Amino acid sequence: xxMLHTMLHDNIKIFGVYTxxxxxxxxxxxxxxxGSALHDNTxxxxxxxxxxxxxxxxxxxxxxxxxxxTDQNGVEKGSFYLLTQKTRQLHIIGPRRIVIDKNEVFIxxxxxxxxxxxxFLGITGLDLNLNFLQEIVEETSYNLFQKQAKxxxxxxxxFIVVSNTSNDQIGLSLQAVLNKHLKHKIMExxxxxxxPIIIDRILTPWSIRISIPLKILRxxxxxxxxxxxxxxxxxxxxxxxxxxxxLWKLAxxxxxxxxxxxxxxxxxxxxxxxxxxxxxxHDDLELRVKDRTA
Length: 294
Prior knowledge:
Layout: H1 2-10, E1 16-21, H2 30-33, E2 47-51, E3 57-61, H3 79-87, E4 91-100, E5 103-116, E6 119-129, H4 131-141, E7 150-154, E8 160-163, H5 174-183, E9 190-197, E10 206-213, H6 214-219, H7 221-243, H8 246-273, H9 278-293
Antiparallel strand pairs: 1-2, 1-6, 2-3, 4-5, 5-6, 7-8, 7-10, 9-10
């Protein structure tokens, strides 16, 4: 808990950080911790540290980790745990709609499995508020294509994560939004391009949909076309760079740090229960560190 709290305190852009363990996989004391602080009635180790509306770091037990019901947008509420448990892969999941202190918040979750000796023990993850991605999209689209470019960031399933045109579309299927516009005959002729967002270790890449009204191109075809190609390239490169910059690296490296620390803790418990001499192991490790730093 101290490690999770410190990580959140030191990284202002992270909304929440957490870990959820399988029954009796952390310290085999679930029964003793049932109903205590940062635990639910199962007693499992499931702390969630987050920033409340006042910016103060607060802790509570994780919720919905086994919930297979879907939210308003059809996303499984427990996907952050259940999907990672099933695939044993690092995932970026979202947008997720959660309720914190009676306030509804849209977040992106970056979640990784905790695996020791090929056994799944749980997950650890980071939650990022959608505001940071919204700011990147709005900043990137400003002053491009006469301010008429529409940018939509899509998750792997084709659902809208953020858009520079409407916050009401968050979490909706892009196809459903397009079908609605078509039904009400408010579609306009556009030039549309897609570009992937590549994030290290993530097997389900997201993408950016960029659309430019055709009327802009017709006003001065040659000049606008060249400008469009240049702007599209700049926009794609900027979004990719910003969306995979230090924040993503921080998230992934932070998760890996948590996993390595927690896994080491469990591994030490395994060694201890097997009555292996931990003092000798410590001395051996210390000697190796000295050899490497010599």
